[in-house]
Amino acid sequence: LIALGIETSCDDTCAAVVTSDRRILSEVLRTQHHLHEPMGGIVPKLAHHAHMRNLPDVVKEAIQQAGLGERGIQEVDIIAVTRGPGLAHCLGVGLNAAKTLAAALNKPLIGVHHMEAHALTARLTTVDPNLVSEGQDGDSATTMTTSKGYVPAGSAPHPEFPFLTLLVSGGHTLLLVAHSVDRYTTLATTVDDSIGEAFDKCARQLDIPWLPGRAGGPGASLEEFAKSSQNPSRYLDQLPIPMSLRTNKRLMKFSFAGLKSAVTRIVDQEKASSPTGGMDEEKRRDLAAGFQHCAVTHLCQKVEQGLVDCHEQGMHISSLVISGGVGRNATLRSRMDEICSEFEYKDSSKSNRKASSKTKNTPQSVPTVALRTRRSVRVICPPPKLCTDNAVMIAWTGLERYQQGLVDPYDIDIVPKWPLDMLGTGVVPE
Ligand code: ATP
Ligand code: FE
Protein backbone atom coordinates (compact mmCIF):
# COMPACT_ATOMS: atom_id res chain seq x y z
CA LEU A 1 0.00 0.00 0.00
CA ILE A 2 1.17 3.53 -0.79
CA ALA A 3 0.05 6.60 1.18
CA LEU A 4 0.38 10.28 0.45
CA GLY A 5 0.55 12.28 3.69
CA ILE A 6 -0.08 16.01 4.09
CA GLU A 7 0.67 18.06 7.22
CA THR A 8 -0.12 21.77 7.69
CA SER A 9 -1.16 22.01 11.35
CA CYS A 10 1.41 24.58 12.40
CA ASP A 11 4.28 26.34 10.63
CA ASP A 12 5.73 23.67 8.34
CA THR A 13 4.20 22.69 5.00
CA CYS A 14 4.89 18.98 4.51
CA ALA A 15 4.04 16.15 2.14
CA ALA A 16 5.43 12.63 1.96
CA VAL A 17 4.87 9.30 0.27
CA VAL A 18 5.28 6.20 2.46
CA THR A 19 4.58 2.49 1.90
CA SER A 20 3.04 -0.03 4.27
CA ASP A 21 6.28 -2.06 4.12
CA ARG A 22 8.06 0.88 5.79
CA ARG A 23 9.71 2.64 2.89
CA ILE A 24 9.78 6.41 2.78
CA LEU A 25 9.59 7.13 -0.94
CA SER A 26 9.69 10.89 -0.58
CA GLU A 27 9.57 13.57 2.06
CA VAL A 28 9.27 17.27 1.35
CA LEU A 29 9.15 19.95 4.00
CA ARG A 30 8.99 23.67 3.49
CA THR A 31 9.73 25.47 6.71
CA GLN A 32 8.42 28.92 7.61
CA HIS A 33 10.89 29.66 10.41
CA HIS A 34 12.30 32.67 8.56
CA LEU A 35 8.81 34.27 8.56
CA HIS A 36 7.98 33.72 12.22
CA GLU A 37 11.36 33.97 13.91
CA PRO A 38 11.62 37.78 13.65
CA MET A 39 8.08 38.05 15.13
CA GLY A 40 9.13 36.10 18.26
CA GLY A 41 6.57 33.34 17.72
CA ILE A 42 4.24 31.79 15.19
CA VAL A 43 1.81 34.25 13.59
CA PRO A 44 -1.24 32.21 12.49
CA LYS A 45 -2.16 34.52 9.61
CA LEU A 46 1.35 34.40 8.14
CA ALA A 47 1.41 30.61 8.55
CA HIS A 48 -1.97 30.27 6.81
CA HIS A 49 -0.85 32.31 3.80
CA ALA A 50 2.48 30.51 3.57
CA HIS A 51 0.71 27.11 3.53
CA MET A 52 -1.57 28.37 0.73
CA ARG A 53 1.46 29.47 -1.28
CA ASN A 54 3.59 26.40 -0.61
CA LEU A 55 1.32 23.37 -0.48
CA PRO A 56 0.72 22.81 -4.23
CA ASP A 57 4.45 22.72 -4.96
CA VAL A 58 5.24 20.62 -1.90
CA VAL A 59 2.68 17.97 -2.89
CA LYS A 60 3.86 18.04 -6.51
CA GLU A 61 7.48 17.54 -5.43
CA ALA A 62 6.58 14.71 -3.06
CA ILE A 63 4.79 12.88 -5.86
CA GLN A 64 7.60 13.47 -8.36
CA GLN A 65 10.38 12.44 -5.97
CA ALA A 66 8.54 9.27 -4.94
CA GLY A 67 9.32 7.75 -8.33
CA LEU A 68 5.88 6.20 -8.57
CA GLY A 69 5.07 3.97 -11.52
CA GLU A 70 3.57 4.88 -14.85
CA ARG A 71 0.24 5.90 -13.38
CA GLY A 72 1.89 8.61 -11.26
CA ILE A 73 -0.37 9.82 -8.46
CA GLN A 74 -2.92 7.13 -9.35
CA GLU A 75 -0.45 4.63 -7.81
CA VAL A 76 -1.21 6.15 -4.40
CA ASP A 77 -3.72 4.01 -2.49
CA ILE A 78 -4.76 6.38 0.30
CA ILE A 79 -4.59 10.09 1.13
CA ALA A 80 -3.85 10.93 4.77
CA VAL A 81 -3.96 14.43 6.23
CA THR A 82 -3.71 16.09 9.62
CA ARG A 83 -7.22 16.93 10.76
CA GLY A 84 -6.26 18.34 14.14
CA PRO A 85 -5.23 19.56 16.65
CA GLY A 86 -3.53 22.69 15.39
CA LEU A 87 -4.10 26.18 14.02
CA ALA A 88 -7.57 26.22 12.46
CA HIS A 89 -6.85 28.07 9.21
CA CYS A 90 -3.64 26.16 8.67
CA LEU A 91 -5.35 22.78 9.14
CA GLY A 92 -7.99 23.90 6.63
CA VAL A 93 -5.44 24.38 3.85
CA GLY A 94 -4.15 20.80 4.15
CA LEU A 95 -7.53 19.20 4.73
CA ASN A 96 -9.17 20.89 1.75
CA ALA A 97 -6.34 19.91 -0.53
CA ALA A 98 -6.45 16.30 0.69
CA LYS A 99 -10.24 16.02 0.42
CA THR A 100 -10.22 17.42 -3.10
CA LEU A 101 -7.40 15.12 -4.22
CA ALA A 102 -9.02 12.07 -2.63
CA ALA A 103 -12.42 12.81 -4.15
CA ALA A 104 -11.04 13.58 -7.61
CA LEU A 105 -8.84 10.48 -7.63
CA ASN A 106 -11.49 8.34 -5.94
CA LYS A 107 -9.14 7.30 -3.12
CA PRO A 108 -9.87 6.66 0.60
CA LEU A 109 -9.33 9.70 2.83
CA ILE A 110 -7.89 9.34 6.35
CA GLY A 111 -8.10 12.31 8.74
CA VAL A 112 -5.23 11.94 11.18
CA HIS A 113 -4.85 13.15 14.78
CA HIS A 114 -1.47 14.93 14.84
CA MET A 115 -0.52 13.52 18.24
CA GLU A 116 -1.45 9.96 17.28
CA ALA A 117 0.94 10.43 14.38
CA HIS A 118 3.75 11.58 16.71
CA ALA A 119 3.07 8.46 18.83
CA LEU A 120 2.97 5.97 15.94
CA THR A 121 6.08 7.21 14.10
CA ALA A 122 8.19 4.79 16.13
CA ARG A 123 6.29 1.88 14.58
CA LEU A 124 7.54 3.03 11.18
CA THR A 125 11.17 3.57 12.00
CA THR A 126 13.10 3.58 15.23
CA VAL A 127 16.61 4.13 16.42
CA ASP A 128 18.54 3.33 19.55
CA PRO A 129 18.51 6.49 21.70
CA ASN A 130 22.23 6.32 22.27
CA LEU A 131 23.22 5.99 18.69
CA VAL A 132 22.03 9.30 17.34
CA SER A 133 22.72 12.71 18.72
CA GLU A 134 21.55 16.03 17.38
CA GLY A 135 23.00 17.07 14.08
CA GLN A 136 23.93 13.61 12.87
CA ASP A 137 20.71 12.89 11.18
CA GLY A 138 21.01 15.13 8.17
CA ASP A 139 18.33 17.73 8.45
CA SER A 140 17.82 18.22 4.74
CA ALA A 141 14.21 18.05 3.79
CA THR A 142 14.38 14.98 1.63
CA THR A 143 16.67 12.55 3.47
CA MET A 144 15.50 8.97 3.16
CA THR A 145 15.35 6.21 5.76
CA THR A 146 18.76 4.99 4.80
CA SER A 147 20.53 8.10 6.08
CA LYS A 148 22.92 7.77 8.99
CA GLY A 149 21.36 6.74 12.26
CA TYR A 150 18.22 5.26 10.83
CA VAL A 151 17.56 1.63 11.46
CA PRO A 152 16.86 0.02 8.10
CA ALA A 153 13.28 -1.11 7.69
CA GLY A 154 12.69 -4.59 8.99
CA SER A 155 15.70 -4.85 11.27
CA ALA A 156 14.49 -2.68 14.15
CA PRO A 157 12.14 -3.81 16.88
CA HIS A 158 8.99 -1.75 16.60
CA PRO A 159 6.92 -1.11 19.70
CA GLU A 160 4.04 -3.47 20.16
CA PHE A 161 0.84 -2.34 21.88
CA PRO A 162 0.39 -1.48 24.68
CA PHE A 163 3.31 0.89 24.97
CA LEU A 164 3.98 4.02 26.96
CA THR A 165 4.57 7.18 24.97
CA LEU A 166 6.06 10.47 26.03
CA LEU A 167 5.03 13.20 23.61
CA VAL A 168 7.09 16.28 24.27
CA SER A 169 6.64 19.06 21.77
CA GLY A 170 5.94 22.75 21.25
CA GLY A 171 2.29 22.41 22.26
CA HIS A 172 2.16 19.25 24.37
CA THR A 173 3.72 17.42 27.29
CA LEU A 174 1.87 14.13 27.45
CA LEU A 175 2.53 10.74 28.95
CA LEU A 176 0.14 8.26 27.38
CA VAL A 177 -0.63 4.60 27.17
CA ALA A 178 -1.08 3.60 23.54
CA HIS A 179 -3.44 0.61 23.78
CA SER A 180 -3.93 0.19 20.03
CA VAL A 181 -4.36 2.28 16.92
CA ASP A 182 -7.18 4.75 17.76
CA ARG A 183 -7.10 4.15 21.55
CA TYR A 184 -5.01 6.13 24.03
CA THR A 185 -5.20 6.99 27.73
CA THR A 186 -3.52 10.08 29.13
CA LEU A 187 -1.52 9.39 32.31
CA ALA A 188 -0.15 12.91 32.70
CA THR A 189 -0.30 16.26 31.00
CA THR A 190 1.01 19.70 31.85
CA VAL A 191 -0.86 22.02 34.18
CA ASP A 192 0.81 25.11 32.67
CA ASP A 193 3.45 25.44 29.93
CA SER A 194 4.53 22.68 27.59
CA ILE A 195 8.13 21.59 27.87
CA GLY A 196 8.83 22.94 24.36
CA GLU A 197 7.58 26.38 25.42
CA ALA A 198 9.77 26.21 28.51
CA PHE A 199 12.86 25.41 26.39
CA ASP A 200 11.97 28.18 23.94
CA LYS A 201 11.37 30.81 26.63
CA CYS A 202 14.46 29.82 28.54
CA ALA A 203 16.54 30.04 25.33
CA ARG A 204 15.21 33.56 24.78
CA GLN A 205 15.92 34.58 28.39
CA LEU A 206 19.48 33.40 28.03
CA ASP A 207 19.96 35.16 24.66
CA ILE A 208 21.06 31.89 23.12
CA PRO A 209 22.08 32.53 19.54
CA TRP A 210 19.90 30.98 16.87
CA LEU A 211 21.80 28.38 14.91
CA PRO A 212 21.13 29.11 11.28
CA GLY A 213 20.31 26.09 9.17
CA ARG A 214 19.83 23.96 12.26
CA ALA A 215 16.51 22.20 12.75
CA GLY A 216 14.86 21.99 16.15
CA GLY A 217 14.43 25.68 16.90
CA PRO A 218 15.44 27.40 20.15
CA GLY A 219 15.28 24.14 22.14
CA ALA A 220 17.94 22.55 19.96
CA SER A 221 20.07 25.70 20.26
CA LEU A 222 19.76 25.55 24.05
CA GLU A 223 20.86 21.93 24.09
CA GLU A 224 23.90 22.75 21.97
CA PHE A 225 24.73 25.83 24.08
CA ALA A 226 24.53 23.83 27.34
CA LYS A 227 26.92 21.17 26.07
CA SER A 228 29.99 23.24 26.82
CA SER A 229 28.91 24.25 30.32
CA GLN A 230 31.91 24.01 32.66
CA ASN A 231 29.89 23.94 35.86
CA PRO A 232 26.40 22.53 35.21
CA SER A 233 25.70 22.34 38.96
CA ARG A 234 26.30 26.05 39.55
CA TYR A 235 22.60 26.99 39.88
CA LEU A 236 21.06 23.67 40.88
CA ASP A 237 20.29 24.76 44.43
CA GLN A 238 18.17 27.59 43.04
CA LEU A 239 16.32 25.53 40.41
CA PRO A 240 13.35 23.37 41.46
CA ILE A 241 12.62 19.94 40.07
CA PRO A 242 8.88 20.36 39.52
CA MET A 243 6.38 18.14 41.33
CA SER A 244 9.08 16.27 43.17
CA LEU A 245 8.23 17.07 46.79
CA ARG A 246 7.25 14.01 48.76
CA THR A 247 3.59 15.04 48.81
CA ASN A 248 3.27 15.31 45.04
CA LYS A 249 5.73 12.67 43.97
CA ARG A 250 2.99 10.31 42.88
CA LEU A 251 0.93 13.08 41.31
CA MET A 252 0.82 12.47 37.59
CA LYS A 253 1.17 16.04 36.39
CA PHE A 254 3.80 18.04 34.58
CA SER A 255 4.55 21.67 35.34
CA PHE A 256 7.18 23.97 33.90
CA ALA A 257 6.06 27.45 34.99
CA GLY A 258 7.96 27.37 38.31
CA LEU A 259 11.18 26.21 36.69
CA LYS A 260 10.84 28.88 34.02
CA SER A 261 10.29 31.60 36.66
CA ALA A 262 13.33 30.38 38.58
CA VAL A 263 15.43 30.83 35.43
CA THR A 264 14.07 34.37 34.98
CA ARG A 265 14.82 35.17 38.62
CA ILE A 266 18.42 34.00 38.34
CA VAL A 267 18.96 35.93 35.11
CA ASP A 268 17.55 39.10 36.72
CA GLN A 269 19.72 38.67 39.82
CA GLU A 270 22.86 38.05 37.79
CA LYS A 271 22.19 41.08 35.61
CA ALA A 272 21.46 43.31 38.62
CA SER A 273 24.71 42.34 40.31
CA SER A 274 26.89 42.68 37.22
CA PRO A 275 28.71 45.98 36.55
CA THR A 276 27.94 45.63 32.84
CA GLY A 277 24.26 44.77 33.41
CA GLY A 278 24.71 41.53 31.52
CA MET A 279 25.30 37.86 32.29
CA ASP A 280 28.54 36.37 31.05
CA GLU A 281 28.52 33.45 28.66
CA GLU A 282 30.01 30.93 31.06
CA LYS A 283 27.18 31.49 33.56
CA ARG A 284 24.55 31.44 30.84
CA ARG A 285 25.85 28.05 29.69
CA ASP A 286 25.73 26.76 33.28
CA LEU A 287 22.17 27.99 33.73
CA ALA A 288 21.08 26.42 30.43
CA ALA A 289 22.58 23.09 31.56
CA GLY A 290 20.91 23.37 34.97
CA PHE A 291 17.53 24.14 33.43
CA GLN A 292 17.81 21.21 31.02
CA HIS A 293 18.83 18.89 33.83
CA CYS A 294 15.83 19.83 36.00
CA ALA A 295 13.33 19.66 33.12
CA VAL A 296 14.61 16.23 32.05
CA THR A 297 14.70 14.93 35.63
CA HIS A 298 11.06 16.01 36.04
CA LEU A 299 10.08 13.98 32.96
CA CYS A 300 12.12 10.98 34.15
CA GLN A 301 10.44 10.94 37.56
CA LYS A 302 6.94 10.94 36.05
CA VAL A 303 7.81 8.27 33.50
CA GLU A 304 9.10 6.03 36.30
CA GLN A 305 5.90 6.64 38.23
CA GLY A 306 3.86 5.93 35.09
CA LEU A 307 5.62 2.59 34.65
CA VAL A 308 4.89 1.68 38.26
CA ASP A 309 1.22 2.71 37.92
CA CYS A 310 0.76 0.72 34.71
CA HIS A 311 2.42 -2.28 36.26
CA GLU A 312 0.19 -2.06 39.33
CA GLN A 313 -2.82 -2.02 37.02
CA GLY A 314 -1.62 -5.22 35.41
CA MET A 315 -0.51 -3.68 32.13
CA HIS A 316 2.70 -5.08 30.75
CA ILE A 317 4.50 -2.19 29.15
CA SER A 318 7.59 -3.29 27.28
CA SER A 319 8.47 -0.06 25.46
CA LEU A 320 8.63 3.66 26.06
CA VAL A 321 8.34 5.69 22.87
CA ILE A 322 9.66 9.24 22.99
CA SER A 323 8.46 11.60 20.29
CA GLY A 324 7.70 15.25 19.54
CA GLY A 325 10.28 17.99 18.92
CA VAL A 326 11.81 17.90 22.42
CA GLY A 327 12.30 14.16 21.83
CA ARG A 328 15.28 15.20 19.68
CA ASN A 329 17.11 16.11 22.88
CA ALA A 330 20.01 13.68 23.39
CA THR A 331 20.18 14.24 27.17
CA LEU A 332 16.50 13.36 27.47
CA ARG A 333 16.94 10.24 25.34
CA SER A 334 19.91 8.89 27.25
CA ARG A 335 18.47 9.66 30.70
CA MET A 336 15.23 7.88 29.76
CA ASP A 337 17.25 4.95 28.50
CA GLU A 338 19.02 4.79 31.85
CA ILE A 339 15.88 4.79 33.99
CA CYS A 340 14.06 2.33 31.75
CA SER A 341 16.94 -0.10 31.60
CA GLU A 342 17.11 -0.04 35.39
CA PHE A 343 13.39 -0.52 35.77
CA GLU A 344 12.62 -4.13 36.58
CA TYR A 345 9.37 -5.97 36.92
CA LYS A 346 9.62 -8.10 40.01
CA ASP A 347 6.54 -10.28 39.73
CA SER A 348 3.06 -9.90 38.35
CA SER A 349 1.70 -8.02 41.34
CA LYS A 350 4.52 -5.91 42.70
CA SER A 351 6.94 -3.64 41.00
CA ASN A 352 10.51 -3.39 42.08
CA ARG A 353 11.92 -0.08 41.15
CA LYS A 354 15.60 0.28 41.60
CA ALA A 355 16.09 3.91 42.50
CA SER A 356 18.11 5.30 39.66
CA SER A 357 21.17 7.19 40.75
CA LYS A 358 20.63 9.25 37.61
CA THR A 359 17.50 10.86 38.97
CA LYS A 360 19.41 12.54 41.76
CA ASN A 361 20.01 16.18 41.26
CA THR A 362 23.41 15.82 39.66
CA PRO A 363 23.82 16.65 36.02
CA GLN A 364 25.08 13.95 33.71
CA SER A 365 27.21 14.19 30.67
CA VAL A 366 25.69 12.35 27.73
CA PRO A 367 27.16 8.86 27.43
CA THR A 368 28.18 8.13 23.87
CA VAL A 369 27.25 4.53 23.16
CA ALA A 370 25.69 2.11 25.60
CA LEU A 371 23.72 -0.51 23.76
CA ARG A 372 22.11 -2.72 26.32
CA THR A 373 20.55 -5.93 25.21
CA ARG A 374 18.80 -6.92 28.46
CA ARG A 375 16.25 -4.49 29.68
CA SER A 376 12.73 -4.69 30.99
CA VAL A 377 11.51 -1.56 29.25
CA ARG A 378 13.01 -0.52 25.92
CA VAL A 379 13.29 3.11 24.99
CA ILE A 380 12.38 3.66 21.38
CA CYS A 381 12.80 6.97 19.60
CA PRO A 382 12.10 7.93 16.03
CA PRO A 383 15.11 9.51 14.31
CA PRO A 384 15.36 13.17 15.40
CA LYS A 385 14.16 14.45 12.05
CA LEU A 386 10.90 12.54 12.40
CA CYS A 387 10.30 13.85 15.93
CA THR A 388 9.41 17.34 14.76
CA ASP A 389 6.46 17.93 12.45
CA ASN A 390 6.60 16.02 9.20
CA ALA A 391 4.24 14.35 6.74
CA VAL A 392 5.92 10.94 6.92
CA MET A 393 4.25 10.34 10.29
CA ILE A 394 0.88 11.40 8.83
CA ALA A 395 1.19 9.04 5.86
CA TRP A 396 2.26 6.19 8.17
CA THR A 397 -0.61 6.79 10.61
CA GLY A 398 -2.98 6.90 7.64
CA LEU A 399 -1.71 3.44 6.67
CA GLU A 400 -2.08 2.08 10.21
CA ARG A 401 -5.64 3.42 10.42
CA TYR A 402 -6.59 2.22 6.94
CA GLN A 403 -5.39 -1.28 7.80
CA GLN A 404 -7.77 -1.19 10.78
CA GLY A 405 -10.65 -0.19 8.50
CA LEU A 406 -10.69 3.42 9.72
CA VAL A 407 -11.59 5.59 6.73
CA ASP A 408 -13.25 9.02 6.76
CA PRO A 409 -15.91 10.56 4.52
CA TYR A 410 -14.92 13.38 2.13
CA ASP A 411 -16.85 15.99 4.12
CA ILE A 412 -14.92 15.81 7.41
CA ASP A 413 -14.01 19.10 9.06
CA ILE A 414 -10.92 20.25 10.91
CA VAL A 415 -10.69 19.67 14.69
CA PRO A 416 -8.39 22.40 16.11
CA LYS A 417 -8.81 21.24 19.72
CA TRP A 418 -8.89 17.48 20.05
CA PRO A 419 -7.84 15.54 23.16
CA LEU A 420 -6.18 12.28 22.09
CA ASP A 421 -8.27 10.30 24.59
CA MET A 422 -11.35 11.13 22.49
CA LEU A 423 -10.08 9.12 19.54
CA GLY A 424 -12.00 5.92 19.12
CA THR A 425 -15.01 7.19 21.08
CA GLY A 426 -16.88 8.19 17.93
CA VAL A 427 -17.19 11.72 19.34
CA VAL A 428 -15.30 14.59 17.76
CA PRO A 429 -15.30 17.97 19.52
CA GLU A 430 -17.16 20.77 17.66
P1 ATP B 1 2.67 20.08 18.72
O1 ATP B 1 3.17 18.83 18.07
O2 ATP B 1 2.43 19.92 20.17
O3 ATP B 1 1.55 20.71 17.97
P2 ATP B 1 4.83 21.49 17.48
O4 ATP B 1 4.51 20.62 16.34
O5 ATP B 1 4.95 22.95 17.28
O6 ATP B 1 3.85 21.18 18.67
P3 ATP B 1 7.31 20.16 17.49
O7 ATP B 1 7.67 20.62 16.11
O8 ATP B 1 6.99 18.74 17.69
O9 ATP B 1 6.19 21.04 18.13
O10 ATP B 1 8.48 20.57 18.48
C1 ATP B 1 8.99 21.88 18.54
C2 ATP B 1 9.57 22.11 19.91
O11 ATP B 1 10.66 21.21 20.14
C3 ATP B 1 10.13 23.50 20.08
O12 ATP B 1 9.69 23.98 21.32
C4 ATP B 1 11.64 23.29 20.06
O13 ATP B 1 12.35 24.26 20.78
C5 ATP B 1 11.73 21.92 20.71
N1 ATP B 1 13.00 21.23 20.42
C6 ATP B 1 13.47 20.82 19.22
N2 ATP B 1 14.69 20.24 19.35
C7 ATP B 1 14.98 20.26 20.68
C8 ATP B 1 16.08 19.80 21.46
N3 ATP B 1 17.13 19.21 20.89
N4 ATP B 1 16.04 19.98 22.80
C9 ATP B 1 14.96 20.56 23.38
N5 ATP B 1 13.92 21.03 22.70
C10 ATP B 1 13.91 20.87 21.37
FE1 FE C 1 3.93 18.39 16.27
UniProtKB/TrEMBL annotation:
The protein's name: N(6)-L-threonylcarbamoyladenine synthase
Location of this chain's protein in the cell: Mitochondrion
Species classification: Eukaryota, Fungi, Fungi incertae sedis, Mucoromycota, Mortierellomycotina
The keyword Mitochondrion is annotated on this UniProt entry: yes
EC number: 2.3.1.234
Keywords, alphabetical: Acyltransferase, Metal-binding, Mitochondrion, Transferase, tRNA processing
Coiled-coil regions listed: none
Catalytic activity: L-threonylcarbamoyladenylate + adenosine(37) in tRNA = N(6)-L-threonylcarbamoyladenosine(37) in tRNA + AMP + H(+)
Cofactor note (record): Binds 1 divalent metal cation per subunit.
Family: Belongs to the KAE1 / TsaD family.
